Amino acid sequence: GDSVTQMEGPVTLSEEAFLTINCTYTATGYPSLFWYVQYPGEGLQLLLKATKADDKGSNKGFEATYRKETTSFHLEKGSVQVSDSAVYFCALSDQGYSTLTFGKGTMLLVSP
Amino acid sequence: NAGVTQTPKFQVLKTGQSMTLQCAQDMNHEYMSWYRQDPGMGLRLIHYSVGAGITDQGEVPNGYNVSRSTTEDFPLRLLSAAPSQTSVYFCASQEDYEQYFGPGTRLTVT
Q1: Bridge-partner residues for A64, per DSSP?
Q2: Paired residues of B90 in beta bridges
Q3: Closest by alpha carbon to A6, among A106, A110, A85?
Q4: Which residues of B make CB contacts under 8 Å with A?
Q5: For B84, which DSSP code?
Q6: In a 10 Å sphere around its CB, with 0-12 CB exposed, 13-18 middle and 19+ buried, how is residue B1 labelled?
Q7: What was the pLDDT predicted at B8?
Q8: What burial letters (b/e) apply to A45-71, b meaning 16+ CB within 10 Å?
């Protein structure tokens, strides 16, 4: 079945550092890929998405590129802020309008 | 738009008690789902619905029931609560590729 593997956290960075959170997936078809973010005490929010190979999703300074050859969708940001501290979830949807399969989440802690 | 709303925010139950977690959305989305979130486990799908009158099981459906009589509402029922159901529960509705999550219900079963 489908699965998503994320790097374990927490990831601890200083403000303005470069961020990478790795995500790889296994799927039978051609999935759509997502990054969701969960701020403390809140539900998840969609951060960015990519629906086909080589697409780059971007939002709020975060980027991720859909790499079919390496089955990866790594999240990057050039300069993190304290306000980026949250849990980040990589997810896939194998049939477009369908249920999501989530990774276990990676906590990001950014210190001033 | 209120988006996706969930009640209650917090709940403590004793083993064997029953309760219903409420979920409503005002975006007229056909697709809705329930997840539970446990430490180190990510989110796991409990049940989902593709429209009024249609529901199906997800990854971890045991111990939970759902119904969908209207587009707006998708309640989750625990018939006989067990300590293993202590978790944070999220309801979501979906349009195209995006899922919209509610704020969650933190349930403790003692």
Answers
A1: A57, A75
A2: B35
A3: A106
A4: 4, 31, 33, 40-45, 48, 58, 90, 92, 94, 96-99, 101-104
A5: G
A6: exposed
A7: 97
A8: ebbbbbbeeeeebeeeebbbbbeeeeb
The C-alpha of A43 sits at a distance from chain B's nearest C-alpha, in angstroms, of 5
Positive or negative CA dihedral for B54, B60, B65, B70? Answer: negative
Amino acid, res. B107? L
Mean pLDDT lowest among A15-29, B20-34, B64-78, B90-104? B90-104
Considering CB atoms only, which of A51, A89, A99 is closest to B58?
A99
For residues A42 and A29, give the distance between their C-alpha atoms in angstroms, rounded to a whole number.
Answer: 32
Q: Choosing among A99, A101, A104, A107, which should be mutated to test the B contact, i.e. which has the most B CBs within 10 A? A: A99
| Furthest-apart CA atoms within chain A: distance in Å | 42
Tell me the three state secondary structure of residue B2. coil
The continuous run of DSSP H or E covering B93 comes out as: strand B87-95
Q: One-letter amino acid identity for B33?
A: S
The residue count for chain A: 112
Of residues B99 and B46, more confidently modeled: B46
How far separated are the first and last CA of chain A, in Å rounded? 41
Alpha helices in chain B (DSSP H): none
Percentage of chain A lying above the pLDDT 70 cut: 96
Determine how β-strand A62-65 pairs with β-strand A56-59: antiparallel
- CB A73 within 8 Å of CB A103: no
